[in-house]
Amino acid sequence: QVQVVESGGGLVQAGGSLRLSCTTSGLTFDDYPMGWFRQAPGQEREGVSCISWSGGTTYYADSVKGRFTISRDNAKNTMYLQMNTLKPEDTAMYYCAARDPILPLSAGTWYVPANFRYWGQGTQVTVSS
Q1: CA-CA distance, 24 to 26, in Å (whole number)?
Q2: Is 79 within 8 Å of 97 (Cβ atoms)?
Q3: CB under 8 A, 24+ apart: contacts of 66-73
Q4: Between the chain's N and C termini, which has fewer beta carbons within 10 Å?
Q5: What is the C-alpha to C-alpha distance for residues 25 and 98, in angstroms, rounded to an integer?
């Protein structure tokens, strides 16, 4: 069975940093573009970042550009999200997801939740002011 598991969330003060990790099993990790999404209470799920199978192409939401960095280590079946200069508005449940490898990856589609085949259960990030 496919499993997607996030870790690394927690409580941090504004201006601080966290690194989220996502580890998968039951799939060929380097076949899949991978993405991070987040959802705050009462809000829609939004795309945070996405990375191609090789790590050579990345996308970021405008709200996190310059502060967050996505990366992956295919030898470890693991994806990361380094989050720096955190703000209270970054508070959300963060989800890791594996994107359908058949679909083209582009600036206009990377953030669409329906294009992602497998999802983790989420890890909570809370940024205090």
Answers
A1: 7
A2: no
A3: 70/36, 72/34
A4: N
A5: 11
* pLDDT for position 1: 93
DSSP 74: G
Q: Are 90 and 83 in contact (CB under 8 A)?
A: yes
Distance of CA 70 to the CA centre of its chain: 7
Q: What pLDDT sits at residue 27?
A: 94
Looking at residue 77, what is its pLDDT? 96
Contact in structure between 65 and 90 (CB atoms under 8 Å): no
Mean pLDDT along residues 26-46: 96
For 107, the token pair is 């600036």
pLDDT, tens digit, 9 for 90 and up, residues 74-118: 999 999 999 999 999 999 999 999 999 999 999 999 999 999 999
